[in-house]
């Protein structure tokens, strides 16, 4: 997070939190812990990276969250990798 600008729009954060509700309970639990810990510290870059992760299917997302797979191709950006690390440690 460092010196990156804070995502201060509460409506945008609320939409992101709602979108993070998934069909798999395991994913829901990880995202709930993540938002409890990081929601108010997220930068615009963090929100963009989370949005990219949330575009994945539930199973693909779970594989990344549980470190069964690592991001590949365009998804392997520094922002996505950083946010994925935050999700895994939450």
TrEMBL record:
**In which broad location class does this protein mainly occur, judging by the first location in its UniProt entry?**
cytoplasm
SUPFAM superfamilies in the record = YgfY-like
Q: Which domain of life is it from?
A: Bacteria
**Which species is this record about?**
Caballeronia telluris
Family listed: Belongs to the SdhE FAD assembly factor family.
Q: What is this protein called?
A: FAD assembly factor SdhE
Q: Where in the cell is it found?
A: Cytoplasm
InterPro entries to which the protein is assigned, alphabetical: SDH (IPR005631), SDH_sf (IPR036714), SdhE_FAD_assembly_factor (IPR050531)
Can the keyword Magnesium be found in this entry's annotation?
A: no
Keyword Thylakoid annotated: no
- Could you list this entry's UniProt keywords, alphabetically sorted: Chaperone, Cytoplasm
> Which GO cellular component does the record give, naming just one?
cytoplasm
Biological process according to GO: succinate metabolic process
């Amino acid at each position: 997070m460092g010196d990156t600008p804070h995502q201060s729009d509460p409506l945008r954060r609320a939409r992101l939190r709602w979108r993070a509700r998934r069909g798999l309970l395991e994913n829901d639990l990880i995202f709930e812990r993540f938002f409890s810990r990081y929601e108010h510290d997220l930068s615009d870059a963090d929100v963009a990276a989370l949005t990219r992760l949330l575009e994945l299917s539930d199973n693909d997302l779970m594989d990344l969250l549980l470190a069964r797979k690592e991001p590949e191709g365009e998804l392997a950006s520094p922002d996505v990798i950083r946010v994925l690390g935050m999700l895994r440690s939450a």
